[in-house]
Amino acid sequence: MIEINLLEKKKPIELPVILGVDLNKVNKKSLVIAYVLYYVMTSYLVPNFKNQNKDIQDQIVQQRATYNKLKKEVDSYGSLTEVMDAFTKRIEELKSREALVAQVMSKKSNPYKVLRGLSGSLNDDIWFNTLTIDDEKVIKIEGESISFSSVGDFINNVKELEYFIPRNGFSSETFGMKELKEIQDQLYGENVTLQSFSIEGKVQSYGDL
User: Fold this and answer.
1) Section 151-174 average pLDDT
2) What is the number of structural domains in the chain?
3) Is 154 within the bounds of a domain?
4) What is the Cα–Cα distance from 43 to 72, expressed in whole angstroms?
5) Which are the contacts of 201, defined by CB distance < 8 A and separation ≥ 6?
6) Residue range(s) defining the domain that contains residue 100
7) How far out from the chain centre does Cα 108 lie?
8) 179 and 131 part of one domain
């Protein structure tokens, strides 16, 4: 007895050939795994990599902006050598000014306060004929007085003035009698005996100008 199956046999699905690869001959399980991997990469990994790459790019841009800002500030000062040269030059200028001020102060020669002090130390019966102060601060006074005691009082009073107090290792007498003698002269039409004196000293300071 012969049986004939009249049902048409279902043919398998034929896959196309892609880039020379016959997909019908490729393991179907491998294709499924490859598709899953492709899906995961395109759906999750690639976007994540893109986000990370964008974050890195943003950080690079930010760091570059910071670098450019710092570089601009550094460039505004010039090179380190130029900055140090300018600083050294400024220091030398200040030293030069300080030396100049010291030189000027050491040569202060305004005798106003000294003369005022001398005038305030005089009694009514003593007067000056000449008074000189040279560049070395040596003072010379020639004058006359009616009484000897007035000359002595004047010298003692001047020695107490700050302008004649010994300083800077100066040990000699700063103000004293050089010569004293009696002379005959007329005063208000009368013959009188006067004390003619010569005083010499060394000005120690002109005081604050």
Assistant:
1) 85
2) 3
3) yes
4) 44
5) 138, 139, 158, 164, 173, 174, 175, 176
6) 79-106
7) 28
8) yes
